[in-house]
Design brief:
The complex is a heterodimer of chains A (about 575) and B (about 950).
Chain A (H helix, E strand, L loop, with lengths): L34 E2 L5 H4 L2 H9 L4 E4 H21 L8 H9 L1 E4 L4 E3 L4 E7 L7 E7 L2 E5 L23 E5 L10 H18 L2 E5 L5 H16 L5 E3 L3 H11 L6 H6 L11 E3 L11 E5 L7 H10 L6 E4 L8 H6 L4 E3 L5 E3 L3 E4 L8 H11 L3 E5 L3 H15 L2 E3 L18 E2 L1 H10 L14 E5 L2 E5 L1 H8 L7 E9 L4 H15 L5 E3 L5 E3 L2 E6 L7 E9 L3 H12 L8
Parallel strand pairs in A: 1-2, 2-3, 7-8, 8-17, 9-12, 9-13, 10-11, 10-12, 13-16, 17-18, 19-21
Antiparallel strand pairs in A: 4-5, 5-6, 6-7, 14-15, 20-21, 22-26, 23-24, 24-25, 25-26
Chain B lengths: L1 H10 L3 H32 L3 H13 L4 H17 L3 H15 L7 H13 L3 H17 L4 H14 L5 H14 L6 H6 L6 H7 L6 H16 L8 H8 L5 H17 L4 E3 L6 E3 H12 L5 H11 L7 H6 L5 E3 L2 E3 L2 H10 L33 H6 L4 H17 L1 H14 L5 H13 L8 H9 L6 H12 L6 H17 L4 H14 L1 H4 L3 H5 L15 H14 L11 H13 L15 H5 L3 H19 L7 H21 L4 H22 L14 H20 L1 E2 L3 H25 L4 H20 L11 H7 L1 H6 L2 H14 L12 E2 L1 E6 L8 E4 L4 E10 L4 H4 E6 L5 E4 L6 E5 L2 E10 L8 E12 H4 L5 H4 L5 H4 L2 E5 L4 E8 L4
Parallel strand pairs in B: 8-16
Antiparallel strand pairs in B: 1-2, 3-4, 5-6, 7-9, 9-13, 10-11, 10-14, 12-13, 14-15, 14-16
Helix pairs in contact in B: 2-3, 2-4, 3-5, 4-5, 5-7, 6-7, 7-8, 7-9, 8-9, 9-12, 12-14, 13-14, 14-15, 14-16, 15-16, 16-20, 20-21, 20-22, 21-22, 22-24, 23-25, 24-26, 25-26, 25-29, 26-29, 32-33, 33-34, 34-35, 34-36, 35-36, 36-37, 36-40
Classes of the chains: A alpha/beta (about 575), B alpha+beta (about 950).
């Protein structure tokens, strides 16, 4: 099973996947070999405790080390909001999260893990968030690559997704931005920095509402390095809580970050922020410029909203929304240009501060998806994690430009893929060498004909030379000879006919060994040709051609040659 | 031995050393020759096991073998090779054969037959590969021998079908290095099967082993390097290899495609799956562009680098590389760059972005969108956004090269370069700033671009800021707002980093002189003058105010209406600045003021000619001094020297020449003065004291000649002769003086001999130049040489004395381009009254910042000297990385000097200065006599010394006693 996420939009049973698709009754463990989690976002791992503890699954759960570290923090946070804030019953408990995490097996990048006798998995770097991975799942010669979410352009703290030319049978890729080609990231970064810088120089305060993990760290790095470069002294604050723990893991998992951080962490770990300090409620009223990162990202509740209310009245201040806002949230309202907001208690809040929007999203765009498909060279592609209409476009493009079959199943739809199963056959070294010795030029891509005997024994295939096969099976060799009569118009004696045949063949078959034996017969390699005079007609001679099964090719060539007759003008 | 042989190959460049080596070798040879091969033979016979034999061989390999004994050693080795059963020993022998055949002076054709012979019988693949390597060494040693080359190529072809990739690799390497393409008619006539090497190598492009494929491509590239023209058919084969599974194959294939595209840029290739045809170079460009988004970063770097050198590509394709069609939900979107441009042209600047401002406009036809462009689309967009900074740097470099050749492309790539100013890696930022500077004459910055550029001024890295100042020096700005913006940002920079003062002033100087008309409307605002009221007079010492004035005065130089806007104090400040910062403030024609220099003539060309003439004339006048009486000659020289020095001050272009000639004349003056001394007329013993002057003169002439030789860049051989000649005269003078002042013959004897040796030496070095030295000191001396050789020291001195007096003054030909090396220490400024306190015994780091002009190879020659008050001097070699090269002929040294001393009772000053070290052997021209030479020229070659070439700066320091 690939990923085990939850749906953000629902609060009823629909928020978790319907595991009855796997089995109606009986334990899931019997039907699943393993579960693979690509990264720690809740839409990829949110249902994990429910699935393993409440539905029941005891098999291994594979994820990368950073995911393993950060995932429980997020699950716990999610549980708190659902249970403590919304008061839901029948939700998984902290203990369940712990129990679930015990079943996790962590994998390294490019480490091949043998799940059982047949199944093996391998993780590739995917960018997107810390620890995000793509997985190659392989059974025998058939393989599937599941991308999870990935990003083909590097950002300030993570590198780009990369996969080798593994040529899977199927590539399952996300398609969030199936119809988008994005602008360079630099412009956005530059705009962001410029706006923050200008506001701060004016003496204004900047509020950046973010979600605790992922983009927040990227923006922190961005601002931190900018502050460093520009020698700025204005304080930057980060609202506490979840983030500190998460930042701790970012510090630890340096190999998963981008080139710059990896190269410089010996001198200084980029996540050990020099300019970014923990935020305290009281700081919001401090005079002078500052930059504050506050959760949550859509300004719908919590600290970010509190700060927003304090600062909204001053036109020197600025709020920068770094991501998407759901309809109905304060974030969406101000972004769509509303200047007067009704708060609870019939207060009207006039928004004088500047409102900016800046999209920092870490999914691959259409070009990136195509690039990854090009890199992996799959036989077919399956699009998931996107909107049907947009996927339709991408599907068409993939089929057109890459000539790869593409599928986009709806929920609950089954796709059956025809694969050409390749069966490995062992070849004996002797036979191979013998064959190699015959070959003149190495032709890597061309198929070559080879004679041998296929032995199938206990689902084990071997190709050996016929002699060896006979020996192994204890069988005696049967000689199979073909004989053929060719009638020739020739009035001369048998001996002379034979001689004429000999000289004729000698002149044509230059590469073969043609011999005239003393008994009057002619041999070409192992093919025997004898001339006989049938009693009834002295004008015709009968040539008796006999060859073994192994020389079938040459034998039939010879007969057809002889049937054409001998050349007339012979000395 | 490998190391030894290698060393010897390198040593071929410096013949002097090599010769010495040979000499030592021949000496050694006599001792060891009989034992060398014999010893090896005995050793190998003694060896009981292959491991032993291997040990002996390894030991043997450590010692050098002389050219004469190589043959014998080779025979022994071959003998053992035939006997040996162990492949590892055979391998070692084979490799030894290869090394031995590289020995200089040994012709390896005699062992080739044996090598080929053993090759035919060898079974082990590794040994085979090694033998082929040996053959390669032999083949490269004998490049002229066609027959051998042919034979080796045949051998290689035979072994190409070997099953081991190593053997195939070596065969291909051999073919690449030795195979020839020329099918001369004679060979065909002889019936020799001439092989088409390219065809054979090309067949191995589809080998099953990626290493062999790589080797095949490399061999093909090798053929190209050796000057054989590759067939165009290779192009298609190479294109197929671009989609190879292995990165080294792809990387090599990219190179091959590039080579072919340079060979046949104009031929036409069809586009697959359509009827169209395009130029090959365009097609190749598209293919290489595609490799910029390859999976392996090695290939990406390679591809990005090569793109830069494809200048013949059509502009249509070139511009595609910057193109990336954006879309959002299937609707066309404008890039941020396009938006910025539009905002700018609509006059509404920096309104900030609204939510949905980038909302997509028109619908995109789904059929028309091509997600993987076949061609060059967006290659640079990808390259500049790559995750590896190596790729980004390569892309920036390529962008620079292409932009230099195409102005329209330069205009287009500007946005992208400006974006790179915000890269996370400093190297990339710096590189893009430099790139921008290089293409800046092709472009004009838009205001919004300028804004982004200027934002980088606040960078905390000094390199970045200075690079940016350099960039601003040569940037074109389009509007007066732009100039204002630049000025404001530069002033901000100045307050934040006061150390950038000089660089900012210089930058504003150029900014002003480039944009006089844009500065004009800004003047009232900048000087904060008011039409009715007098405003307060700004502080003259404020660096920011000076910066503004520098901008305005430089603009006013070509804008005569500007001075009318100045207020009274501005004129006063002008006068002050013109004197104190004359390099930054030009001469202005101000109303009611007489200005000496600008009154002469405003045009530069007519100004240069008379001074050049003056220089020539005054020098010519000097050369007549032969006919003057000593007194007159001296006066003439003194005047001329004075004139030249003044000329150098006035005309910076001629400063180098003037100084150079003045120094030469000063040497002559000293010589004349020394010869006029009375001491010559008096009996020797009486004038022990007074000879001081003469010997001091000799010493000074020596110093001056070294200065002339090493402190000026652009000194040619003919000047070097004259300089050496002058030095020789000084040495003669020294000898005479010593002869007069010392008693006893013994020291004199040695000196005489040494001097004669030097004359001999001079003759050898400058044998070709001797005809120019008619009537000179050395000319006369050489005539008398046979007599000198045999005479006694006293006599020699006498002869020298007369020749020195009689010899003619040599005409110093003026070099075309000559510049005096100079250095200015910017920091420490030496003004501080606060001593630098530190605990004695520990070190204190002193930041040194200096600019060097016209210094060749400063990394090796420039040293820092620290003089302590107790006379102790310390010489510091700065790290090579501390030198930066901001422009041609200029260097900048930013380094730290560590000072330490024992405790002092009160603060005192140490002197810091820069020295130029020289080594006389470096300049000595190579002469043919070296080849047959028998005398080792050690007398003069290794004279080393230093010349101080900057003003010393005093630093106040105070080592405190350590507290217990």
């Amino acid at each position: 099973m690939l990923d085990c996420g939850m749906h953000m939009g629902f609060n009823d049973d629909r928020r978790f996947p319907d595991f009855s698709y796997i089995t109606q009754n009986g334990r899931l463990t019997d039907f699943l070999d393993c579960v693979i989690i690509s990264h720690f976002h809740l839409d990829h791992c949110g249902a994990l405790p429910y699935f393993s503890e409440m539905v029941g699954y005891d098999g291994p759960i594979y994820m990368t080390h950073p995911t393993q570290a950060i995932c429980p923090i997020l699950l716990e946070d999610y549980r708190k909001i659902a249970v403590d804030k919304k008061g839901e019953a029948n939700f998984f408990t902290s203990q369940m999260i712990k129990d679930c995490m015990k079943k996790v097996v962590a994998v390294h990048l490019h480490q091949t893990v043998q799940v059982d006798d047949e199944l093996e998995i391998k993780a590739y770097y995917a960018g997107h968030v810390l620890g995000a991975a793509m997985f190659q799942i392989k059974v025998g010669s058939e393989s599937v690559v599941y991308t999870g979410d990935y990003n083909m352009t590097p950002d300030r703290h993570l590198g780009a997704a990369w996969i080798d030319k593994c040529r899977p049978n199927l590539l399952i890729t996300e398609s969030t931005y199936a119809t988008t080609i994005r602008d360079s990231k630099r412009c956005r970064e530059r705009d962001f920095l410029k706006k923050v810088h200008e506001t701060v120089e004016r003496g204004g305060k900047v509020l950046i509402p973010v979600f605790a993990l992922g983009r927040a760290q990227e923006l922190c790095i961005l601002l931190e390095t900018f502050w460093e470069r520009m020698n700025l002294k204005v304080p930057i604050y980060f609202s506490t809580g979840l983030t500190e723990k998460a930042n701790h893991y970012y510090k630890l998992f340096i190999p998963w970050t981008n080139q710059k951080i990896r190269k410089t962490f010996v001198q200084r770990n980029m996540f050990e922020f020099k300019h970014i300090k923990a935020f305290d409620r009281a700081f919001a009223d401090n005079p002078g410029p500052m930059v504050v990162f506050a959760t949550p990202g859509m300004l719908h509740a919590g600290q970010s909203l509190q700060i927003f209310r304090k600062w909204a009245g001053n036109e020197k201040n600025m709020v920068i929304m770094p991501g998407y806002c759901v309809q109905g949230t304060v974030g969406h309202k101000i972004l769509s240009g509303q200047r007067k907001l009704e708060m609870e208690g019939r207060q009207v809040l006039e928004v004088k501060m500047q409102v900016e929007y800046m999209s920092f999203s870490a999914h691959a765009d259409a070009k990136g998806i195509m690039q990854l498909v090009g890199q992996a060279e799959p036989e077919s592609v399956l699009l998931v994690h996107g909107e049907a209409k947009k996927m339709e476009f991408l599907k068409q493009k993939i089929e057109q430009e890459l000539r790869v079959s593409c599928y986009m199943p709806a929920n609950g739809e089954t796709v059956t893929l025809p694969t050409s199963l390749s069966i490995p056959v062992g070849i004996s070294l002797g036979l191979l060498k013998q064959e190699m010795a015959q070959g003149l030029l190495p032709e890597a891509k061309k198929p070559r004909l080879l004679h041998g005997t296929l032995i199938m024994k206990d689902s084990n295939f071997r190709l050996v030379s016929s002699e060896q096969a006979l020996k192994e099976l204890g069988l005696a060799e049967h000689q199979l000879r073909f004989t053929c009569r060719v009638h020739l118009h020739d009035t001369r004696k048998e001996q002379e006919t034979a001689l004429r045949v000999y000289s004729h063949l000698k002149s044509i078959l230059k590469d073969h060994c043609v011999q005239h034996l003393p008994d009057g017969s002619v041999t070409v390699e192992s093919i025997l040709i004898q001339a006989a005079a049938p009693s009834e007609d002295p004008g015709t001679k009968v040539l008796l051609v006999s060859w073994t099964y192994q020389d079938e090719e040459l034998g039939s060539f010879l007969t057809s040659l002889l049937k054409k007759g001998l050349p007339q003008a012979l000395s | 031995m490998a190391a030894h042989l290698k060393k010897r190959v390198y040593e071929e460049f410096t013949k002097v050393v090599q010769q010495q080596q040979e000499e030592i070798a021949t000496k050694k040879l006599r001792l060891t020759k009989p034992s060398k091969s014999a010893a090896l033979h005995i050793d190998l016979c003694k060896a009981t096991s292959p491991a032993d034999a291997l040990q002996y061989l390894l030991q043997f390999a450590r010692k050098p073998v002389e050219a004469e004994s190589v043959e014998g050693v080779v025979r022994i080795l071959l003998e053992h090779y035939y006997k040996e059963n162990d492949p590892s020993v055979r391998l070692k022998i084979a490799s030894l054969l290869g090394l031995l055949s590289k020995t200089t002076g040994f012709s390896p054709d005699c062992i080739m037959d044996d090598a080929i012979n053993i090759l035919q019988n060898e079974k082990s693949h590794q040994v085979l590969a090694q033998l082929l390597d040996t053959l390669l060494a032999i083949g490269t040693k004998l490049p002229e021998n066609q027959a051998i080359q042919m034979r080796l190529v045949d051998v290689a072809c035979q072994h190409l079908t070997d099953t081991s990739h190593g053997v195939r690799n070596k065969c291909l390497q051999l073919l690449g290095n030795l195979g020839s393409l020329e099918k001369s008619i004679t060979k065909d006539a002889e019936g020799l099967a001439t092989r088409d090497v390219q065809k054979i190598i090309g067949d191995y492009f589809s080998d099953q082993d990626p290493r062999v494929r790589t080797a095949a491509i490399k061999a093909m590239l090798q053929l190209h390097e050796r000057g054989l023209k590759l067939h165009q058919t290779i192009y298609n084969q190479a294109c197929k290899l671009l989609s190879d599974d292995y990165e080294q194959v792809r990387s090599a294939a990219v190179q091959l495609i590039w080579v072919v595209s340079q060979l046949y840029p104009e031929s036409i290739v069809p586009i697959p799956s359509s009827n169209e045809e395009i130029r090959l170079v365009d097609d190749a460009f598209g293919k290489i562009c595609h490799m910029v988004s390859d999976g392996s970063w090695v290939v990406r770097v390679q591809a990005a680098k090569l793109l830069g050198s494809m200048e013949q590509v059509s502009s249509h394709f070139l511009e595609q590389t910057l193109d990336k069609k954006l879309m959002s939900d299937l609707r066309r979107k404008r890039t941020a760059h396009e938006r910025a441009k539009e905002l700018y042209s609509s006059g509404e600047f920096s309104s900030g972005r609204k939510w949905g401002d980038d909302a997509p406009k028109e619908e995109v036809d789904t059929g028309a969108v091509n997600l993987i462009e076949s061609g060059a689309c967006g290659a640079f967009v990808h390259g500049l956004e790559d995750e590896m900074y190596e790729v980004r740097i390569a892309a920036v470099e390529a962008l620079c090269m292409l932009a230099q050749s195409s102005p329209s492309f330069a205009e287009k790539c500007l946005d992208f370069l400006v974006d790179m100013f915000n890269d996370e890696i400093e190297e990339v930022r710096l590189q893009s700033i430099h790139t921008m500077r290089k293409i800046s004459n092709n472009i004009t910055l838009r205001e919004d671009q300028l804004d982004t550029v200027l934002a980088v001024l606040e960078d905390s890295s000094r390199d970045i800021r200075e690079a940016l100042h350099e960039l601003l020096c040569c940037t074109n700005v389009s509007t007066k707002e732009g100039i204002h913006l630049a000025l404001v940002e530069l002033l901000k920079n100045l307050t934040k980093y006061p150390t950038d003062r000089d660089s900012i002033w210089k930058c504003l100087k150029f900014l002003g002189s480039r944009h006089p008309t844009l500065v004009l409307p800004l003047v009232p605002e900048l000087l904060s003058t008011h039409p009715f009221f007098d405003t307060a007079e700004p502080d003259m010492d404020d660096p920011a105010y000076i910066a503004v004035l520098v901008l305005i005065f430089n603009a006013a130089k070509t804008c005569p209406t500007m001075p009318a806007l100045f207020s009274d104090h501005t004129f006063r400040h002008y006068a002050y600045l013109r004197d104190s910062l004359s390099h930054l403030v030009p001469a202005l024609r101000l109303p009611g003021r007489k200005l000496v220099s600008s009154a002469v003539s405003p045009s530069i060309i007519s100004q240069e000619d008379p001074s050049q003439q003056f220089l020539q004339q005054s020098l010519e006048r000097v050369y007549t001094l032969q006919h003057l009486d000593p007194q007159g000659a001296q006066e003439l020289l003194e005047f001329t020297i004075r004139d030249l020095q003044r000329l150098g001050e006035l005309q910076s272009e001629l400063a180098g020449v003037a100084d150079f000639s003045a120094t030469y004349l000063r040497c002559q003056l000293l010589l004349i003065k020394a010869l006029q001394e009375k001491l010559w007329n008096v009996a020797a013993p009486l004038y022990l004291k007074q000879s001081d002057l003469a010997s001091a003169a000799a010493k000074q002439i020596m110093e001056e000649t070294y200065k002339m030789e090493f402190m000026y860049s652009g000194v040619e051989n003919k000047q070097v002769v004259i300089i050496h000649h002058m030095r020789l005269q000084a040495k003669a003078l020294q000898l005479i003086v010593t002869a007069r002042t010392t008693r006893g013959l013994d020291p004199l004897f040695g000196m005489c001999e040494k001097f004669l040796q030097e004359v001999d030496f001079f003759q050898r070095y400058f044998i070709t130049d001797l005809p120019h030295l008619q009537d000179s000191f050395v000319d006369k001396l050489l005539d008398l040489m046979p007599r000198l050789m045999t005479s006694k020291p006293a006599e020699v001195v006498k002869i020298l004395q007369t020749t020195l007096r009689q010899s003619a003054f040599l005409h110093l030909p003026l070099p075309e381009q000559i510049h005096k090396a100079s250095a200015t220490i910017i920091e420490p400024a030496g003004e501080s009254d606060n001593p630098l306190r530190f605990t004695s015994g520990l070190v204190v780091a002193l930041d040194v910042d200096a600019t060097l002009e016209h210094v060749q190879d400063p990394q090796n020659t420039v040293k820092i000297q620290v003089l302590y008050p107790d006379g102790q001097a310390q010489l510091i070699h700065p790290k090579p990385a501390d030198f930066r090269n901001p422009g041609p002929g200029r260097h900048r040294l930013i380094t730290q000097v560590y000072l330490s001393h024992t405790a002092w009772t009160e603060p005192c000053q140490v002197e810091v200065r820069l020295l130029l070290s020289y080594n006389s052997s470096a300049r000595i021209p190579k002469c043919p006599w070296m080849e047959g030479g028998e005398v080792s020229p050690q007398v003069e070659t290794s004279i080393e010394g230093t010349i101080p070439f900057s003003k010393p700066v005093k630093v106040y320091i105070m080592p405190k006693p350590a507290r217990r």
